[in-house]
Amino acid sequence: MVQLDDCPPVTFVKRRNQRSLRIRVKADAIVVSAPLRCSDRQMAGFLREREDWVRKTVQRLSGQRNKRHATLNERRGFTLLHGKWVPMICRPARPGSEDWLLVWREGRVDVYPPENLDVLDMLVPSAKENGAKSGPAPQTHTASLPGDAPPANPLRQTQLTLPLNHEPSVTKLIDVPREIRIGFEKEWARTRLPEEFEQVASSLPFTWTRVFIRSQKTKWGTCSSKGNISLNWRLVKCPEFIRRYIIIHELCHTVHMNHSKAFWSLVEAHFSRVDEAHAWLKKEGELAFL
After folding, report:
1. Do 257 and 242 lie in a common domain?
2. Which CA distances in Å does 60 have to 25, 29, 115?
3. 149 lies in a domain?
């Protein structure tokens, strides 16, 4: 079967229930799918006919990927929460600790690495020294939870309680491993998003069944015919007005399970910044998937 030079590998798939030929281009793969009746020659010809479009799409996705990597490199030592880049401050390891502990503070995340981990290579210069274009140190909303946020990462945890006004003695940023950072962000989302949903929904005339925090790859939220609403955990990275918009959007689906004029009229009746929200999601939404 056909492979394209300077492109990701091509996979050819035949599916019983598929009715037409399709091409799906991803950053690391190209998938040509077809009904069972199609021959290999037809599938290869279909790909060749659309080769120019495939190559342009590959280049576009590659450019987006490079841009994402550049953004992450510039923001080493930061995590995106509530629409702002929050510094992750390296703190002394807890005696005998084997796990990472990340604790939300006002305007920062304190990071306590495992005791036996050499973090010297993980420390990064300050935003100014690193040439980041972020200007002043990022700030975020004050946590609404009493005391410290619970520890949040995918490894074993030990709760650590410190006064909210406790200032770190070490001010170096630390480039936390991606799986640890994402684990923290997910746990933060599981804590914050249901609370925020209840706050928004309780003031509106909608009826829903349950709220779930999911990890959708392409959707910010969904609403089932049974009134179950799922929110993407990545919403915790977005500004407050975006989270509010997605919550209201999904609540309106409990009335209209479509995107009809009636649906959009209902959304706009409860949220006046729809166009602004769409513009932000189109321009900045991809940052939440870094």
Report:
1. yes
2. 11, 14, 43
3. yes
Q: CA 190, CA 216: separation in Å to the nearest integer?
A: 14
Cα angle 98-102-104, degrees, rounded to a multiple of 5: 160
Look up the domain containing 98 and give its range.
Answer: 78-176
Quote the CA–CA distance of 45 and 263 in Å, as a whole number. Answer: 42
Domain identity same for 194 and 268: yes
* Residue with more model confidence, 162 or 239: 239
What backbone torsions phi and psi does residue 261 show, to the nearest 5 degrees? Answer: -60, -35
215 pLDDT band, cuts 50/70/90, is very high
Closest listed residue to residue 234, CA positions, set 221, 223, 224, 252: 221
Helix (H, G, I), strand (E, B) or coil at 223: strand
Place of tokens 């069944």: 209
Is 267 in contact with 247 (CB distance < 8 Å)? no
Q: Is the pLDDT of residue 261 over 70?
A: yes
Least confident of 65-69, 146-150, 213-217: 146-150
Overall average pLDDT of the 17-36 stretch? 93
**Are 118 and 202 contained in the same domain?**
no
Number of domains in the chain: 3
Q: What is the DSSP string of 8-66?
A: PPEEEEEETT--S-EEEE-SS-EEEEEETT--HHHHHHHHHHTHHHHHHHHHHHHHHHH
Q: pTM for this one? A: 0.71
Distance CA 192, CA 98 (A): 27
